[in-house]
Amino acid sequence: MEKWQLNKYVRFVLIVGMVLSVSVMTIGLAAYAIAPGSYQDVSLSPLDIPAEIGKGNPIAVIDLGILFLIATPLTRVVAALAFYVLDKETKMVGVSVLILIVIGIAVVLGAS
Amino acid sequence: MDIITAVGILLFSLGAGFLGSMLGLGGGVIIIPSLSLVFGFPMHVAIGASLVGVIATSTGAASYYVQEGMSNIRLGMVLETATTVGSVIGAVIAVYTNQQLLAIAFGILLVYTSFYMVRRPERLAAPRVEEKKGYFDLAGSYIDKKDGKEVSYDVEKLDRGLGASLGAGALSGLLGVGGGLVKVPVMNIWMGVPMKAAAATSNFMMGITALAGAVIYYGYGQISPVVTGLVAVGIFAGAMSGSRIAHLVAGPLLRRLFAVVIAVIAILMFLKGLGVLTVV
């Protein structure tokens, strides 16, 4: 496959991640502005976010937007990995997997 | 948080994203001193917000640079293997490091930034003379919008680039910056990548470098959602506009002005680190 195709896939992932995360964070910030001080400005565990959004907690909405943003570069590595697998580029598949492994270690360290 | 603080954080973040995307930096050199000195947030909160902000700069700017073919994705990903390792190490160290020590370390980084912005030597890339493929086939090309000509280049000294990227990653995790201050000159001077492609590739890489650190900060509860949300939204807007007008701006003047501002901030950070100054 050509270089511009990889660029196209990566750009698509970045745009989707950007729109999604900014939209969600903006909604959360607007909701927080309506009732500032009602909620503690402390990040929630990702597992608690859905339930807290259900309760109308704006901090949970902002957290969700932050997680979407954090996930965006990760998703573009996965997209590149899929591209390289289809293109049978063994070396770049190895590079992509190595990046994902290090991110995985960071997640484990953060969670612990 | 009152409305004036919120608007202030948004405005500073807008400026950070704007300048960062044009200069190949993540914007952390503006965000961290702003949050720490102007708004009085603890260094750890400032660094956590900055790391997420760096991802925002990277996402906003890279979406444009990738479309234009300026970011060398293959080179960026190969170097990311080193920056992510460095970032994880740096973030773990930072979580257990004293705030004043972090402020002094950041002050030293700012002095270097200021010096780099004034001097900023640029190596002009030698044109490709033959179609040779290195181990990862990292050679790149892009159309320079200034004169409409295609610029092709080879990538040299990958081993040195990987070593420097490890250091840039550690800097990112430790101090919450994008690491572009190290990556851009290394790619240009050591690896022979033209400055515009180096800045665009640096912007592309920053997202994944900062991600490794941001995940650890999130896990350790060092991310303040409201502050971080304001920083990210402001930076996005700045990065989107900055990357689009980068080629129209008089670079040398902008860099000198930026250098003066950074030098002043460096002095304030040193004073904070030494305990002389708490909040401006």
Overall pLDDT of chain B: 80
Low-pLDDT stretches of chain A: none
Q: Calculate the terminal CA-CA distance of chain B, rounded to whole Å.
A: 17 Å
Q: In percent, how helical is the residue content of chain B?
A: over 70%
Helices of chain B, by number, come to: 10
Which H/E pattern describes the elements of chain A?
HHHH
Which whole number gives the mean pLDDT of chain A? 88
Q: What is the domain tally of chain B?
A: 1
Rg of chain A, please? 17 Å
Structural class of chain A: mainly alpha
Characterize the largest beta sheet of chain B: strand count, sense, and whether it forms a barrel.
2 strands, antiparallel
Radius of gyration of chain B: 18 Å
Biggest interface pair, counts? A-B, 51 and 53 residues
Q: What overall form of chain B do the CA principal axes indicate?
A: globular
Number of helices of chain A: 4
- What's the overall geometry of chain A? elongated
What is the end-to-end distance of chain A?
41 Å
